[in-house]
Amino acid sequence: MFGNFAEKHMERHGVEKIPEEERKGKESSLFFLWFASNLTIGDLALGFLFASFSIPLYEYVISALIGNILGGMMLSLMSVTGKVTAQPQMITGTRAFGKNGIKVMSGLQWGNTIGWLTFNTIIASYALTAILRTGNYYYVSILIISTVVFILALLGHNIVQRFERYMSIILGLLFVYMSYEALGNGGFISSGLSTASYSVLDSAVVVALSFSYIMSWGPYAADYSRYIPSSGSSSRVFAYSFAGSVTASFWVETVGFLVAVVTGITSATIPSDPIEKLLGSYAVIGLLAIVMGGLSANALNLYSNSLSMRTVGIRLKRIWALIIVMGISIMLSIIGYRSFYLLYEDFLYLLDYWITPWLGVMIADFFIVRFAYGKGTNNHGFNIRGVASYVLGIAVSVPFMNPGSIISEMPISYILGGVDISYFVSFLVSLLLYWLFSAFPVRIKSHGASLSNGSDQ
To answer: 167, exposed or middle or buried, with CB in 10 Å at 0-12, 13-18, 19+?
Structure first.
């Protein structure tokens, strides 16, 4: 039975350009996809983390809105590139970085998606284990969740899109219930925040981490907009991607923030603990939301991971690429589940460091240097302008870094009171440098071929 279903619905395409006659997607589908994939455990856990700062509610709301809006803009701009090029996100960077340069970026994205796959599996497995009412089922929970995600990713784009549409409705209803329960304890919310005071540092961290979470979807975005016809509207692609992602991410982070404050659990070792305390005998509703949110996010993580692996140049059938990555994720989930919160904040910071300069180069190349991106090619191994802009963007941003417990606080971050603005620095520097390098005629020898301004356009 499954074999017949798979034969009928399994995606046939890999990383090649989607033929126009098969591009039958709708812009509105992107709202449901990004809405469902952000009604998830990662955002909920981020809200718990924000509550541990003990900041006033108004400060959290303003800071989280700023972070989510900025991050949502990054995701949505990348979504537009998929509609224009009909190619996966990593492939769309070939013109900016070169054929070999984009393999390096794809390798980073491959590691990025494994990280998210693992973190979401850990939290979802906690919740499923709580539903099963015994800690002995944690490893079984990992296998169950991993199997469902594997099947979705194996079937491919259309099934993932359909699954996310259903999840947007189911998860939406579940989070409406949790929102009602959290807001119903308004007295506890006000009392829990009565001693909080405004903090520039805490506000900056909320902006940084909420921005980091939502913009980290940027390297996936075109994977799900490449089936939209070329005659479709780029502005609608942007609008639906932005509305779905920002609405869901801000909403769920706020639910997590309020739940943590209401329950008084702002440093939970197990992410499902605050939900269980808030909902009591109805905790299964919240736990189901966590489990299904994990499935929703990881369907995208695993599917896009397989595309990144092929872009790197590893020639494997999708099923084998998925098996390898799923095995790695399962092992990491077993190893890392006891130290989730210790690693989560540091992981989000690290995402900023490689993704934001990549976004700067991509946005400069696509939206400033030449918008008709899909018509350009780059047959060189490396586009020196793109690679140099990327590397220099990171280098200039290093003094601004404060990556949690991983590396010592850098000097400018220390002067700023511990605030880490390196992600914005690397984004702006890489964007401006690529624009500058492309604005003047240059000739650089690369792999024996001459690169001049416009020769790789």
So the answer is: buried
